[in-house]
């Protein structure tokens, strides 16, 4: 860790910590969120296992008035959001909560937290919302006293969130965006990047991006059948697999998630690994 951690106040009782992590570009950090009241605190996500970060946390939390940490809530179990969990639990003795669909990735001490369940912190209450799409058991957390929504990897402050097989589900992702759009959020607090101060606009942007990608897929398949690699070359012409094999693989896995949605809707057919658009279906 090159510089001391500096908490950013999000709202009453809530702070953001940008912790260095091994994550996808353009980001080099994962946000953890501290919620504190009456000397008690809880964290949301811990994507760093850097010993220097973990050593600094006790003093930092004490500076925010936290005398005891009661819980660590996880949006999901991708490593850049949970790699520091075991070390954190060993140091603070906090309970760890995760959606049941992601619980198998953690040791037996992880406890289930389902949709609409709440975690109390003094007079405050944090509500879990099951928001699949990026991962099957992804959770967002609604902080009603602050009108703040902790969205994990459902969206980032800029750019797009990766949704790809085997865990990504485009239809579920769009449904989760719709669900969050119905909340009276004043701020979105993402897993990566800065706070989002226009929630309605940002939610609409990421939804539109996903629909535009879907339209690109349908256009590419309108007049020919394509393998996934050939589809990737049409949709991402600037991405050369010889130079960036890992990015090419991720792009293909994202396209496969779109193709699965379109197949379920009867808009695309697959035969022998080749995909074609169903004619006459919008």
Low-confidence regions: none
Note the total helix count: 7
How much of the polypeptide forms β-strand, as a percent range?
A: 15-25%
Secondary structure tally: strands: 14
Number of domains: 2
Shape: elongated
Helix and strand sequence = EEEEHEHHEEEEEEHEHHHEE
DSSP helix fraction: 25-40%
Structural class, by secondary structure, is: alpha/beta
CATH architecture of the largest domain: 4-Layer Sandwich
The CATH homologous superfamily of the largest domain corresponds to Ribonuclease Z/Hydroxyacylglutathione hydrolase-like
Q: Order of strands in the sheet with the most strands?
A: 1-2-3-4-5-6-7
Mean pLDDT level = 96
Main sheet overview: 7 strands, mixed
Protein name: Beta-lactamase domain protein
InterPro entries: LACTB2_WH (IPR041516), Metallo-B-lactamas (IPR001279), RibonucZ/Hydroxyglut_hydro (IPR036866), Sec-metab_biosynth-thioest (IPR050662), WH-like_DNA-bd_sf (IPR036388)
Pfam family, one: Lactamase_B
Domain Metallo-beta-lactamase: 29-192
Layout of helices and strands, plus pairs?
Blueprint: E1 8-11, E2 14-20, E3 29-37, E4 40-44, H1 51-63, E5 68-73, H2 79-82, H3 85-92, E6 95-98, E7 111-112, E8 118-121, E9 124-130, E10 139-143, E11 148-152, H4 170-181, E12 187-190, H5 199-220, H6 228-235, H7 245-264, E13 268-271, E14 274-277
Parallel strand pairs: 4-5, 5-6, 6-7, 11-12
Antiparallel strand pairs: 1-2, 2-3, 3-4, 8-9, 9-10, 10-11, 13-14
Helix pairs in contact: 4-5, 6-7
């Amino acid at each position: 860790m090159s510089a001391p951690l500096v908490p950013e106040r999000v709202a009453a009782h809530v702070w953001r910590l940008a912790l260095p992590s091994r994550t996808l570009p353009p980001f080099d950090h994962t946000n953890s969120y501290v919620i504190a009241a009456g000397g008690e605190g809880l964290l949301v996500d811990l994507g760093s296992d850097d010993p220097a970060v973990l050593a600094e946390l006790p003093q930092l939390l004490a500076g925010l008035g936290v005398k005891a940490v009661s819980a660590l809530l996880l949006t999901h179990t991708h490593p850049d959001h949970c790699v520091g969990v075991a070390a954190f639990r060993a140091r603070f003795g906090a309970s760890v909560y995760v959606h049941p669909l992601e619980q198998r990735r953690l040791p037996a001490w992880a406890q289930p937290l389902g949709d609409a369940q709440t975690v109390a912190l003094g007079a405050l209450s944090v509500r879990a919302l099951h928001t699949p799409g990026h991962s099957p058991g992804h959770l967002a957390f609604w902080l009603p006293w602050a009108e703040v929504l902790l969205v994990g990897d459902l969206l980032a402050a800029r750019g797009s969130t990766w949704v790809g097989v085997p865990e990504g589900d485009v239809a579920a992702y769009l449904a989760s965006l719709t669900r969050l759009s119905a909340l009276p959020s004043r701020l979105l607090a993402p897993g990566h990047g800065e706070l989002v101060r226009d929630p309605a606009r940002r939610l609409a942007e990421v939804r539109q991006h996903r629909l535009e990608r879907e339209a690109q897929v349908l256009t590419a398949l309108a007049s020919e059948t394509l393998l996934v690699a050939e589809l990737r070359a049409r949709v991402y012409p600037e991405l050369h697999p010889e130079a960036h094999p890992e990015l090419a693989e991720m792009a293909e896995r994202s396209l496969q998630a779109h193709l699965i949605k379109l197949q379920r809707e009867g808009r695309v057919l697959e035969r022998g690994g080749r995909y074609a658009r169903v004619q006459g279906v919008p």
